[in-house]
User: What shape does this take?
Amino acid sequence: MSKQKDFYATRSTAWWKVAIAMIGSCLSGVTFVSVPGMVGSVGFGYLQMCIGFFLGYLVIAFVLTPLYFRLNVVSVYEYLEKRFGAASHKTGAWFFFVSKMLGASVRLFLMIATLQLLVAGPLGIPFWVTTLVVVLLEWLYTVRGGVKAVIGLDIFKTVCMLVAVVLCLVLIGREVGKPDTSMMRVFYFDDVNHPQFFWKQLLGGLFTVVACTGLDQDMMQRTLACKNVKDSQKNLIVSVILQIVVISLFLFLGVYLYQFAGLHGLEAKGDALFPAVTWSGLLPASGLVAGLFIVGLLMAGFPAGGSALTALTTSFTIDILGGKDEKRTWVHTGMAVLMAVSIIVFNALNSTSVIDAVYRLASYSYGPILGLFAFGLCCKRKVRDGWVPVVAILAPVLCLVLDLNSVAWFNGYHFSYEILPMNGVFTMAGLWLISKK
Assistant: This one.
């Protein structure tokens, strides 16, 4: 295989390797820091979304994956050109570009911000310097290794992250004793207006996974690296089960962290909780726990950025430049520079939980992609291809208007992650209006 093809899936990797790699790719620095921090406000409510994740993986395994293998695509957005036309193809690619760039930058920002707080800041290193160094390292390890490097490092990352979280659970659990069951509520059925209402979380998880994994060039590169459809399906099912197990470990860790913080008067919560406890110096093995936290954070966050760079390069080269491989290295460098700029901007604007920010971004940016694929698979009508970009832009704008006014218009109702499927429905409705038999 030539170097020019290194950024593309080669359909030669054992399924179990891909399954382990996908655990690492799905569980980023956001999971490592934000999921334990969520326990203080919503308990184990995140598991409701995980049920939706499982259902979403079934859709990917038995609907989308056979389609991609049958069409023999390099970029998943090539399907849109085969089904609708060139404008639809580029619309899907551009929405992926914006979505993945913002999402990857948010995830990498969390890792860099934590490193800045704990390590670089005390050494007098500015945030922008830390950002440039990290992104440069991301660029170096992916510019030659491509997809194989991404999968290999994801496997190593998964092992390191699991070792870190299990050891932290054991060491902190010894200090606090039994977990506080009052912080372990899973299901929310009582208030439809609550963001954690069960059906909101279930549907949000389902459609988020279908859009952000099944319709995402970054994530599907791994699945398409398997030898055949059956291997890809085994990889997806095993991977999502293991992901739910790992997320549960992080939630239990969150209970212990809040208990420990309460015992010792630490006021940190949310994304700041895990770093505050591990670096408080109050644990018997504080040096070991702090080291485990840094290793786990780096292994959770660093490969995710490289994976995103590889996928962005592949999609931009194939979908937007028309497969001009000779420009691949320049495109890869441009993606790295843009990611660094995005992270620095996020540092200036950061004001909310990062995991919530990631899913909110996905709700708006992946919705048109979800609608395009759903319409293509569920309906045989042809669309006026030139109008597709207009529909794809109007759908999230309409969602934003509804989101901003939902409390006043719908008797106090708050939209949560169900914005994503609603966005897809608006896109499908617009496609129907510009379609013909």
Observations:
- The first helix runs from residue 15 to 26.
- The first strand starts at residue 382 and ends at 383.
- Confidence is low (pLDDT under 50) at residues 1-8.
